[in-house]
Amino acid sequence: xxxxxxxxxxxxxxxxxxxxxxxxxxxxxxxxxxxxxxxxxxxxxxxxxxxxxxxxxxxxxxxxxxxxxxxxxxxxxxxxxxxxxxxxxxxxxxxxxxxxxxxxxxxxxxxxxxxxxxxxxxxxxxxxxxxxxxxxxxxxxxxx
Length: 144
Fold this sequence. Notes:
Elements: H1 4-20, H2 25-32, H3 36-48, E1 52-55, E2 59-62, H4 64-86, H5 91-101, H6 107-122, H7 124-138
Antiparallel strand pairs: 1-2
Keywords: Activator, Cytoplasm, DNA-binding, Manganese, Metal-binding, Repressor, Transcription, Transcription regulation
Function: Central regulator of manganese homeostasis.
Subunit structure: Homodimer.
């Protein structure tokens, strides 16, 4: 299993390749707000672990293993963002909250959250009830 730091890199590399068709060291550094030398070191580690193939001055390509993990990590991030939206977390806080929790949840917990998100998406009346409950609580009213 990749470390949380490796996960951040794989997620962002996967996302960059999906968006642009490639991921350069400078793009990754900018996306993660780190120095290019840090990216090079991590990319070399990811190469050793067979998540990608890296050739100095030529770029990198995700292996099938790297693509699978990168997609799974991006899907996890997207799911957690949607979950936090559903439960009414302020939009300005969602990204930082996801970054804070995504590496600390088990895949079983992620699967349970996925079922909950799907439930609310398929049952908008229940989502309306949840939001009404939250609004009533925030206003100090008894929702019952």
